[in-house]
Amino acid sequence: QVQLVESGGGLVQAGGSLRLFCVDSGRMFSSYAIGWFRQAPGRQREFVAAVTGSGTGTYYSDSVRGRFTISRDNAGNTAYLQMNSLKPEDTSFYYCAANPNFKAYTNTASYMYWGRGTKVTVSS
Question: Which of 27, 55, 70, 73 fits a 20 to 30 Å CA distance from 81?
Fold first, then answer.
């Protein structure tokens, strides 16, 4: 099965950049679309970005479009989230997840497997 581990979170000042990593220790990574979601304490989990299995299709929430870029390297079983021009409101735990059906990319219910998250803090 898919097993996802996120890394790359940390503390940055507003306007800075971070690159998040999502590594799959399973054996069928390219069979899944990958999404990034974020959830702050006491808040609902929200969609951030998604990439299709081949890496040719990408989707973004309105709040991050133009600032974040999602990509993947199937040979390395890794998905990435490049975050530029970070804002304090981007502060959250970020999770990667695997979608087996390539449908409803913005819906949390479409994702079968989830990582444990990595913390991103953006100071003002």
Answer: 27
Place of tokens 């679309």: 33
Give the pLDDT mean for 89-115: 94
Q: Distance (Å, rounded) from C-alpha 78 to C-alpha 99?
A: 15
Chain centroid offset of residue 9 CA? 11
Rounded to 5 degrees, φ, ψ at 90 are: -80, -10
| Strand partners of residue 119 | 93
- Nearest to residue 9, comparing CAs of 17, 89, 43, 18? 18
3-state secondary structure 26-81: CCCHHHCEEEEEEECCCCCCEEEEEECCCCCCEEECCCCCCCEEEEEEHHHCEEEE
* Residue pLDDT, tens place only, 19-76: 999 999 988 899 999 999 999 999 999 999 999 999 999 999 999 999 999 999 999 9
